[in-house]
Amino acid sequence: MNATRRRQLFERLRSANPEPRTELEYSTPFELLVAVILSAQATDKGVNLATRRLFPVANTPQAIHDLGVDGLAGYVRTIGLYPGKTRNIIATCRLLLEQHAGEVPHDRESLEALPGVGRKTANVILNCAFGEPTMPVDTHIFRVANRTGLAPGRTVREVEEGLLARVPQEFRQHAHHWLLLHGRYVCTARRPACPGCLIADLCEYPDKTRAEAATPAKATQRAAPRATPQGAPRRRRA
Ligand code: SF4
Hints:
Layout: H1 3-16, H2 29-39, H3 44-54, H4 61-76, H5 82-99, H6 108-112, H7 119-129, H8 139-148, H9 156-166, H10 175-185
């Protein structure tokens, strides 16, 4: 996809959703860190249901550490892979308390040293909590980047580097949210809603869904619910 089309693609996604946000609910960088660790191979909706019970009771490293593995598990056992995630969160809380004065560190190396935190999670924290124009690549973004021709790659890292090199600077901060939401709600894995897709004429995917076979798009780009701007407190959804 050439530079002109890349710009058009992001201009359209931005027009449809000027302030995209993560669908995970949080009000501090630490809450976001816990939510992202819990969200691996789980839905944001499922994580939100659990953290709505957890955070009013414990939303600091000390408070969650004090719950212990069994206490924390009581709040998150509805989430897939919760035993390992619970152990990682408690170990992360201990490291935050011992090495970072209870604060979420603002650098990639320290973040990736936390149990349960890999490159993608670190990218999410750096982008959403600290406003850095990082490019977390999940399964949706990987699919959209490859199908559209925006940043083809065989590995997540290749796609991440392709996006960082090709997304125009002015769209860098929100690019991953736009692509993630587009992949989650429009360019879905099994039957992309190409006939209703707002970037269909720019997309280079050769196997676009035809109109008669497509499931109508729920929306060309669903606006994400409001979430935390740069870690600032926000209201949770009812
Ligand atoms: S046209 Fe189809 S394949 Fe291309 S981005 Fe839109 S939904 Fe995805």
